[in-house]
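Good morning,

Attaching, inline, the backbone tokens for the sequence recovery test we're adding to the shared suite. The designed sequence is right after.
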């Protein structure tokens, strides 16, 4: 199915020059004699680049062939991450550039959302919060137990974050995957 310029509303995903884009912002100007132009801000779903584009009149676009699947993290090597579709058991190899900052939140068996474009993985989405075990936490300074004091901790995935002074080695904590920050200690 093809899309006209007036279909490019905020949130719509379409294909342009072989790349999937998501419309971030949309403004339409109606010109004299029934013509119109559309100014859109679009974000590439492959590399995250944001572009401002102007389209005129009767230009047509294809819907992007995007599929979302739930997958399980299996393991990684030096440059690739491996996931398995939880329904079909098909395995996916994902380059580390696509995973980027989220690598420190993966633990074996955790579920993620993979976004595929024409069968190739273009993005990995983590749940908003993940529960991870603290493998190492610095000792708190005696008498300094206010909640504003933080210290370094290393999670079971190897990721280092700042945690409140009362967190100890062995605690399970909730971490916000968007910010990489400590949320709360999980009751165990």
């Amino acid at each position: 199915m093809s899309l006209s310029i007036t279909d490019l509303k905020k949130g719509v995903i379409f294909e342009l020059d072989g790349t999937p884009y998501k419309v971030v912002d949309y403004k339409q100007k109606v010109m004299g004699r029934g013509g119109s132009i559309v100014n859109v801000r679009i974000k590439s779903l492959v590399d995250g680049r944001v572009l401002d584009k102007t389209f005129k009149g009767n230009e047509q676009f294809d819907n992007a062939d995007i599929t979302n699947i739930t997958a399980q993290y299996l393991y990684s090597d030096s440059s690739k991450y491996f996931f398995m579709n939880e329904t079909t058991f098909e395995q996916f190899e994902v380059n580390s550039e696509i995973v980027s900052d989220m690598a420190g939140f993966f633990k074996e068996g955790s579920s993620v959302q993979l976004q595929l474009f024409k069968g190739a993985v273009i993005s990995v989405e983590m749940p908003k919060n993940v529960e991870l075990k603290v493998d190492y936490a610095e000792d708190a300074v005696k008498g300094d137990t206010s909640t504003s004091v933080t210290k370094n901790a290393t999670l079971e995935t190897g990721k280092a974050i700042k945690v409140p002074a009362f967190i100890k080695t062995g605690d399970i904590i909730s971490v916000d995957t968007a910010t990489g920050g400590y949320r709360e200690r999980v009751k165990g």
